Every structure is written in structure tokens, then in C-alpha cells.
């Protein structure tokens, strides 16, 4: 699947044009790295995960819905047809402890009508995404 809208990686890798899975990873990374104070360039459009957590600290359904909407805004900049589903795997634990397993399922339809499905799992512990931090610090656990 080829898409004319590349994704900036802010690394020596440069721009990603054709690898959909890699584009998804960098869009997600850019989203999760965004800080509320960095959003002045596109104020009211850029939503940080920190602000979403603050708005929905005891509301797993609201958190999942707000996260899904914010991700859709970012992904629609790079793909024409995107379906995103955010699911909190343990909502009762989230309400009590602030810990959550978050599953993000993304389906992208390419210009040639091919579908690409990507699922990413995140573990949020006291507002820190443990799985992401562990992978950055220690490498993938595959």
C-alpha cells in the first residue's frame, strides 16, 4: 500500500512513505510523546495523552473514547480511511488503581483497497506507559 503523505520521524530515518506499519508506529510515538505545553502550534487540535488522562482519571470509557478521537485526528492527516478502536482491558482495575492495559486496534484502507490491520498494546501504570518505556529502555521483548 502506498500513500502520498509521508510521516516525519524526527530521526535519521527521515520520512516514511510506504511502510504502513512503520508509519503507524511513528504516529503513535509522536502522539504519546506530545506534551501539553508543546501543542501551541496547533492549539485545540493537538491533544496530549496526559491531558486525556487528567480529564478521565476515573472514567475508563471516557478515556478510551477521548483517546480514540484524538488518535483519529492524527491518523486522518496521513490516511484517507482509518478505523480506530481503543479498548481498556481492565476498566475496574483502572477505576481503583489508575492502572490500565490499553489495546489500540487500527485498520487502514489503502488507495488500492487493501486493508492493513495493526494492534498495539500499552500498559499504563499510574499515568506512565510501562510497556513503551521498557521497550525504549531495554528493547522489544519479542
Overview of the structural elements:
Strand 5 (115-125) and strand 6 form a beta hairpin. The longest helix has 17 residues, at 60-76. This protein is of the alpha+beta class. It has five helices and six strands, in the order E-E-H-H-H-E-H-E-E-E-H. Helix content is 38%, strand content 25%. The strands form two sheets. The chain has a four-stranded antiparallel sheet with strand order 3-4-5-6. Strands 1-2 form a two-stranded antiparallel sheet. The protein has helices at residues 20-33, 49-55, 60-76, 91-97, 130-138, and strands spanning 7-8, 15-16, 81-88, 100-109, 115-125, 128-129.
Strand-helix topology:
Layout: E1 7-8, E2 15-16, H1 20-33, H2 49-55, H3 60-76, E3 81-88, H4 91-97, E4 100-109, E5 115-125, E6 128-129, H5 130-138
Antiparallel strand pairs: 1-2, 3-4, 4-5, 5-6
* Percent range of helical residues: 25-40%
- What is the terminal-to-terminal distance? 26 Å
Low-confidence stretches are none
**Quaternary structure of the protein:** single chain
In this structure, how is the largest beta sheet organized?
4 strands, antiparallel
Strand content: 15-25%
Secondary structure tally, helices: 5
Strand order of the largest sheet: 3-4-5-6
Rounded average pLDDT:
78
List the helices and strands in order: EEHHHEHEEEH
Instruction: Tell me the overall shape.
Output: globular
Structural class: alpha+beta
Computed CA radius of gyration, to the nearest angstrom: 15 Å
Question: What is the number of E strands?
Answer: 6
Amino acid at each position: 500500500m502506498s500513500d502520498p503523505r509521508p510521516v516525519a520521524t524526527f530521526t535519521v530515518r527521515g520520512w516514511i512513505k510506504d511502510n504502513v506499519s512503520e508509519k503507524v508506529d511513528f504516529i503513535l510515538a509522536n502522539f504519546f510523546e506530545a506534551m501539553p505545553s508543546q501543542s501551541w502550534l496547533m492549539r485545540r487540535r493537538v491533544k496530549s495523552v496526559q491531558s486525556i488522562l487528567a480529564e478521565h482519571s476515573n472514567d475508563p470509557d471516557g478515556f478510551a473514547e477521548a483517546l480514540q478521537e484524538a488518535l483519529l485526528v492524527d491518523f486522518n492527516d496521513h490516511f484517507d480511511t482509518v478505523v480506530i478502536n481503543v479498548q481498556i482491558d481492565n476498566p475496574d482495575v483502572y477505576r481503583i488503581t489508575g492502572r490500565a492495559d490499553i489495546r489500540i486496534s487500527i485498520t487502514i484502507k489503502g488507495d488500492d483497497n487493501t486493508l492493513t490491520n495493526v494492534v498495539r498494546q500499552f500498559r499504563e501504570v499510574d499515568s506512565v506507559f510501562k510497556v513503551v518505556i521498557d521497550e525504549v529502555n531495554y528493547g522489544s521483548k519479542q
